[in-house]
Automatic annotation (TrEMBL):
The lineage of its organism: Eukaryota, Sar, Stramenopiles, Ochrophyta, Bolidophyceae. Its cofactor is Mn(2+). This is alpha-1,3-mannosyl-glycoprotein 2-beta-N-acetylglucosaminyltransferase. Coiled coil: none annotated. One of its GO terms (cellular component) is Golgi membrane.
Amino acid sequence: MVGFQIGLHSHTVGNNLELDIGKWHIAVDTAERSEARHNMENRGQQGSGNIAGNNVLPPAVPSAPAGSMRAYLEGGSKLTLIVLACNRPEYLSRTLTSLMKDVRGVRVEDVLVVQDGKHAETQKVIEDFGLNFVQNTGGTNLRRGAVNDGAARIATHYKFAITKGFEHNPASPAVIVLEDDFLFSPDFLEYFENNGPVLEEDPTTFIMSAWNDNGNKIHVNDRNKLLRTDYFPGLGWMMPRKLWSELGASWPNTHWDHWMRDPLRHKGRSCVFPEVPRDYHIGVKGTFMDDFHHKAYFADIGYNKDESFNWRGDEWKGVVKATYDNDLKEGIGGAKELNSLADFENVSGERFVIYINVNPKNPTQPFKQIGQYFSIWHEIQRGGYEGVHGFWWKNENYVYIINEGEQGGFKSGRTGKLWAVGDFQ
C-alpha cells in the first residue's frame, strides 16, 4: 500500500478501512497511462509538465470580468480544470487517464494538477501525463497542525488549489474542481460548457456539480434532465470566479464542504446537478471514506457512459427557478398519491407522490428508514429541493417524496395518506 492515504472529499462517514489495492491499480495504470499519453500526442496536446511552488503563476491575460461566462464559452474558450491530489498515485493515474482519454474537448493546457506536498510517486504520475502542476508546500507538512486533522488539511488545500486555478488562466470565468479519485463521462466537460451560464443567468443558483448524490442506476433515466438542490453535492463542481470573489477571503480552516452548505454562504441559492451523473467516485479509501460507505452510497452510481449523447445547449433554461418550480408543481400535481407500497407492483410509467413529515434538523436522522427503503441517502437534505426529492424508482416509475416538515411551496396538495417513517418496511 502507499503509505499515508488521504482523500480530498469530506463526507462524514466513519472510520477509515485499510485496503491493499495498490498492485492492481498499478498494473492497470501503466497500460492506461501509456494509451492516454499516446492519444494526447496524436492530438498535438503534449503538456509541459511545469512545476510551481507557492509563488503566484504569472498572469497571461487580464482577469475575467464578472458576468462573462456565456460570451466566453460561446467564443470557443475553455474553462480551467483543477485536479486536487496528494499521495495516491494509483487513483490519480486512473483519474487523469479518464480525464484525458475519455472526456471530449479536454486540452492539456487547460488542466492544472495541484498537489498537496511533494509525494514523489504522485509527482511522477503527473509528469508522465505532461501536465502543468503546482505543489502546495507552504507552512507545516500538513498545512495546519496535527497529522490526524485531515479536514483542516483538505480545506486549506482547496483554498490554495482554487486560487491557483484562477491564476492559471486569468481569463477563465470559472474553474472546474476535481479530485484524484474520479472517472468521467464522455460529455463531462460539455455538461459544464453547455449549462454553466445558468449560474450567471439565474441569481438563485449557487454552483453546478456533475454529481447526483442519489444518482444510483435504479434512480436515473433522462440524460438531458437538470435538477436543483439546496444541498451542496461537491464531487466535480464549478466554482464561478464571481462566487470565489465572494467566498474566497473567508474560506474556512476546516470542513470546507459543510461550510459551503451553511445558509450564510449559499444564501438560499440552489445547486444545479444532472439527473444522470457525469462522474464516478472510485475512491474506496480516504480521509472520510471506507469500503462500507462506498458500497452503500457510491458504488452503484449510474454515470453517463453513452459516447453518442450530445447536449442541445438549451437544457439549462429548464433549471431557471421560475420554469423549474412551475414544471415541478405540474409534475407533482399530475402524480398519484401513494396509498400502499403494493401500488408500485406491476406498474410502469407512472408518477407517484409520497407525503411525509420529518424534522430535517433531527440528529437521529428519522429519514434513514425511508432512505434505506429507496436506496437513497439517509440524510434528508442530500438531493432535496425545498422539501422535495424526485427520482426514478427501479427505472420504471417516478417518485416524489414531499416533506411537510420543511419550508417550500410544494406541500399543499395532499388529500390522502401522510406516511410515517415506520411504514417503509
